[in-house]
Amino acid sequence: MADSLKTLFNWFPVLRTLFQAKTEHEFDDFLDRHFEECIQRMEAEAHHLTADKEEKLSAFLAAALSMPGLSVVREGYSNGRVDLTIKSESIQSSERRLAEAKIYAGSAKHVQAIQQLVSRYSTGRQSRGYVVEYIQKPGISDIVVKLRAKADIDFPVNQEGMTCDHRMKWAYISDHRHTSQELIRVVHINVNLHR
After folding, report:
1. I want to staple 27 with a disulfide (CB 3.0 to 4.6 A). Which of 52, 95, 118, 188 is the partner?
2. Superkingdom, according to UniProt (predicted)?
3. How confident is the model at residue 23 (pLDDT cuts 50, 70, 90)?
4. Positive or negative CA dihedral for 129, 183, 169, 105?
């Protein structure tokens, strides 16, 4: 009983932030911070995850992201089987975000993940999505710099403008024009699983 109360007490500030989110922007700010905490937990456990396949890594991430008020479904359907569907269960803000995850295997695979997220799974209704890259090789910092530099030359998947910084380490943002003509902001989150 004491452990349950302690767990609930630890969740309270996070739950309050989620349930107080009234706008898309407030929800996205919450979700970015929540992603960052969960990614740091994954990286702290990297010695257990380094040799794992994408499905297991995404299951671990989904479990970490799930919390009261935030539903995270693996392989949910949105014009195909999207890796993660994240949905607020708050009465004030019924937001949904999609995330495509890959084990890093070069820039072509990264572009494929963006393509799947923006052109296949997204309907254009959500203004934001995530590409999560599990990096099991050394040199994550250099890999991220190269991915951004290539994107800023090639402008893949109808990218508009240059990539920009994200406050999360090893993350950045790009904007892509969906076939609906809506602009989708993609947050690229890179997870260091090399040990």
Report:
1. 95
2. Bacteria
3. confident
4. positive
In degrees, to the nearest 5, what angle opens at C-alpha 5 toward C-alphas 61 and 68? 35
The tokens describing 179, both together, are: 């076939």
- SS3 of 155, please? coil
Contacts of 122 by beta carbon, 8 Å cutoff, 6+ apart: 78, 79, 98, 129, 178, 184
Instruction: Extract the tokens encoding 126.
Output: 């959500």
Token reading at 11: 């969740």
109 is written with which tokens? Answer: 């695979």
Tokens of 17: 């932030």
What is the torsion angle, in degrees rounded to the nearest 10, for the CA atoms of residue 188, residue 180, residue 157 and residue 159?
Answer: -70
**Is this structure's pTM higher than 0.85?**
yes
- Residues 163 and 55: their CA atoms lie apart, in Å, by 28
The total number of structural domains in the chain stands at 1
d(CA 46, CA 49): 5
The pLDDT score that the predictor gives to residue 77 is: 52
Question: DSSP letter string over 71-132?
Answer: EEEEEEESSSEEEEEEEE--SS---EEEEEEEE---HHHHHHHHHIIIIII--S--SEEEEE
Name the region of 76 (left: φ>0; alpha: ψ -120 to 50; beta: rest): beta
Instruction: Give yes or no for a contact between 54 and 62, defined as CB atoms under 8 angstroms apart.
Output: no
Decide if 176 contacts 158 (C-beta within 8 A).
yes
Q: Whose CA is closest to 19, among 67, 84, 65? A: 67
